[in-house]
């Protein structure tokens, strides 16, 4: 046996007689009117938290630090600089979608990871060169 997807309910204003003298209307489940979803529920992306932000909105779009992230890719700290590049691209995409707060947050993380990558890369290069000239590391 298969269950039915319809039901009968008394609806004010939209009634019809069902033969028994009672006012009921048969409605299918597919025809029920649902409340519209909020815009944040319709989106599959990150929700903006501009409603909870207390800071005054800054003018212009937030920085994504893409050039800095690309420059950091030349340093020998590859896992960190690749993640910085990904955060930078995510920041750019969030800014283009209108999520200013998310773009700012991702841009700051891209900047931090890029700076860490450049500093660690410089330390590694300096250590390698200094140990190479002392003869401890063969070419």
Automatic annotation (TrEMBL):
Its subcellular locations are:
Membrane
Keywords of the record:
Membrane, Transmembrane, Transmembrane helix
Q: What is its main location?
A: membrane
Family annotation (Pfam families): CD225
Q: Name one GO cellular component term.
A: membrane
Segments passing through the bilayer: 65-89, 110-131
Q: Which N-terminal residues, if any, form the signal peptide?
A: none
* PANTHER family found in the cross-reference section: NG5, TRAFFICKING REGULATOR OF GLUT4 1
Family according to the record: Belongs to the CD225/Dispanin family.
Protein name, please?
TUSC5 protein
Q: Which organism is it from?
A: Rostratula benghalensis (greater painted-snipe)
Q: Gene for this protein? A: Tusc5
């Amino acid at each position: 046996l298969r269950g039915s997807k319809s039901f009968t309910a008394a609806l004010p204003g939209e009634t019809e007689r069902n033969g028994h003298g009672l006012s009921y209307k048969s409605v299918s489940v597919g025809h029920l009117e649902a409340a519209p979803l909020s815009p944040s529920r319709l989106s599959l992306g990150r929700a903006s938290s501009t409603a909870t932000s207390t800071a005054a909105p800054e003018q212009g779009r937030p920085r994504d630090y893409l050039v800095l992230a690309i420059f950091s890719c030349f340093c020998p700290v590859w896992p960190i600089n690749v993640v910085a590049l990904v955060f930078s691209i995510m920041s750019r995409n969030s800014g283009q979608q209108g999520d200013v707060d998310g773009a700012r947050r991702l841009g700051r993380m891209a900047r931090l990871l890029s700076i860490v990558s450049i500093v660690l890369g410089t330390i590694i290069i300096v250590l390698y060169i200094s140990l190479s000239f002392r003869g401890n590391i063969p070419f």
